[in-house]
Amino acid sequence: MGKPGADVLSTPALLGLMEGACIQQSEPYMAVEHTTVGYAVDGLRHLAPTPVGNKVVISVELTEVDRNRLTYQIEAHEGEQRVAMATHKRAVIPIQ
């Protein structure tokens, strides 16, 4: 996204990776008839650029469960450098 030549990981693409990591962490624990949907991203900070082709590692920690609401702390790293962080909230809902 953005100007040609700025070949770095975009913030929307990074957020998608972060949300996907939360989904992957929780899905194995969902009952067959349930899934999660995101409803908030708080404090998203994209701190440093990541050139296209470099590896980003997403770390997710489930920090709170309140009835059907899950809260995650997320960090993204490129090597030793933290490139992003956010708090993400998801709700457990029936698929039907």
How are the elements arranged and paired?
Layout: H1 11-26, E1 34-46, E2 57-66, E3 69-78, E4 81-94
Antiparallel strand pairs: 1-4, 2-3, 3-4
Task: Characterize the structure shown.
The chain is an alpha+beta fold. The N and C termini lie far apart (35 Å). The chain contains one helix and four strands, in the order αββββ. The longest helix has 16 residues. The radius of gyration is 15 Å and the shape is elongated. The chain has one domain: Hotdog Thioesterase (Thiol Ester Dehydrase, Chain A, Roll). InterPro entries: FlK, FlK-like_dom, HotDog_dom_sf. It comes from Geodia barretti. Pfam families: FlK (PF22636).
Number of alpha- plus pi-helical segments: 1
Overall average pLDDT: 94
- Give a short account of the largest sheet: 4 strands, antiparallel
Q: Low-confidence stretches at least 5 residues in length (pLDDT < 50)?
A: none
Strand content: over 45%
Give the tally of structural domains.
1
Distance between the termini: 35 Å
- Give the radius of gyration: 15 Å
CATH class category name: Alpha Beta
Compose a concise summary of this entry.
The chain contains 1 helix and 4 strands; from the N terminus they run H-E-E-E-E.
State the main characteristics:
alpha+beta; 4 strands; 96 residues; four-stranded antiparallel sheet; single chain; Thiol Ester Dehydrase, Chain A
